[in-house]
Amino acid sequence: MEYIDKVIIQAARVGNTEVIRELISRGTDINCQDEKGYTPLIIACYNNHFEAAKTLLEANADVNAMDFGGNTALMGVSFKGYPDIAELLIAHGADLNLQHGNGGTALMFAAMFGRNNLVKMLINHGADKYLLDNRGLSVIDLAVQQGNEEAIAILEQETAA
């Protein structure tokens, strides 16, 4: 990895939008990847840096880029529980139904980790609750495994509607 890639990735990690903007103005590859395949956008989102993520998206960062495990920025914020960044990603065209290496989706992450506001948000934006992971489990199955009664209620209510 080139030195400049390390700089933009570190700027994304700490949310330094000033450095990100400067690097973008110099033509830096905003979709570069580190040794795990993380892009600056994935890193900014995972670390809850809204303005950094917005800056990268406005510069046309790939909203659906995947790390080497198949995880996207939307999956990361669904796991971590950052609804404002999830809305930002969705507004920029994030694919709600991408599946990572084990078949998990952003909706599955939200349900498994009790991010029920994100479960509702993703459903409201059209996430597919019928997708199955590599073990054949649906988001409702995963919510049941975790004892996430609220997510189960949200998913069943949305299914009945």
TrEMBL record:
It comes from the Bacteria. Pfam families: Ank, Ank_2. SMART domains: ANK. It comes from Dyadobacter koreensis. This is Uncharacterized protein. Keywords: ANK repeat, Repeat. Signal peptide: none annotated. ANK repeats lie at residues 11-35, 36-68, 69-101, 102-134. The lineage of its organism: Bacteria, Pseudomonadati, Bacteroidota, Cytophagia, Cytophagales.
